[in-house]
Specification:
The chain is α+β, with helices and mostly antiparallel strands. The protein has 7 helices and 11 strands. A hairpin with a 2-residue loop joins strand 10 and strand 11. It comes from Methylocystis echinoides.
Length: 282
């Protein structure tokens, strides 16, 4: 009986302590952060009506980059309207990088970082990674071209931010979109590289990157010989051709050159059927 009474008393004490802890006021750092008080669509004006200040419980070093610490700070300069460059969800921090500059419209140019340019690349369902490239992704840019009757592929740009697909730049579509063009954020020199590759008849393709992968790899030029080494080695190719002639009497025997014969291989059968004049030879 005594044990039961002690267990009840211990349970009551524990419940009281939990209740007291839950009702205790939350300690704050004295810092306030501006949050969206409701969903703010792309292109919508930023005003005091869709913002609110929230107590920030952590230290100042934990404040998100670009956050505003007061409504007055978010409204500066007074009289200069700013608009959302992305959809801002309710109860999320308002960040400077997600807003246009004062007096600027919600256009593609407003999303460009300092000293960067926008350039568009023509793609299809293959060169556009099946339509899975979305605004905000990062890609590598490759070009394939012919020189002296040989094909080459180079990676000309790496880790490039996607600004838009076709005319879509305000958000990420929920499903893959097969588009005709992808707009990239590049510097002036990189824009020249893309225009040169397109102007010289090169085929440009995009390679989608892992969002956590920002490394720039050291890559070299590839040609058909890197895929099939025998193609690049002339002597070896000639040797294989000679061996093939020795194995096939219908090629190596001059007497057979007077009539046209066709060798037919079916499936994985290495023994060829010989047809001459539309008739199968035995």
């Amino acid at each position: 009986m005594l044990i039961l009474v002690l267990a009840i008393i211990a349970g009551l004490i524990a419940a009281f302590l939990v209740h007291r802890t839950l009702r205790a006021p939350v300690k704050t750092s004295g810092i306030k952060i501006v949050f969206a008080s409701r969903d703010i669509p792309y292109g919508a004006a930023i005003s005091r009506d869709n913002l609110r200040e929230v107590d920030w419980p952590w230290t100042q070093s934990d404040i998100p980059v670009g956050a505003f610490t007061s409504l007055a700070d978010a409204m500066k300069p007074e009289g200069m309207q700013r608009v959302a460059l992305v959809e801002i969800a309710k109860n999320t921090p308002l960040l400077n990088q997600n807003l246009s500059r004062p007096g600027q419209k919600a256009s593609l140019s407003a999303t460009l970082n300092e000293n960067m340019k926008a350039v568009s690349v023509r793609v299809d369902d293959v060169r556009g990674v099946g339509g899975f490239i979305m605004p905000g992704d990062h890609v590598d840019v490759t070009t394939t071209f012919k020189q002296d009757s040989k094909s080459y592929t180079d990676t000309i740009l790496q880790n490039i931010r996607v600004l838009a697909i076709d005319q879509i730049n305000k958000d990420r579509p929920e499903t893959a979109q097969v588009v005709k063009s992808v707009t990239l954020e590049v510097n002036t020199e990189d824009a020249q590289k893309i225009h040169l590759a397109q102007g010289s008849g090169g085929i440009i393709a995009l390679v989608l990157r892992n969002p956590n992968d920002s490394a720039v790899e050291k890559v070299g030029r590839l040609n058909i010989g890197d895929l099939v080494p025998e193609v690049a080695s002339g002597p070896q190719a000639q040797q294989d051709d000679d061996q093939g002639r020795r194995r096939d009497p219908y090629i190596s025997d001059p007497r057979n050159s007077r009539s046209t014969r066709i060798r037919v291989f079916r499936g994985g059968d290495r023994n060829a059927e010989i047809w001459s004049g539309g008739v199968k030879e035995k």
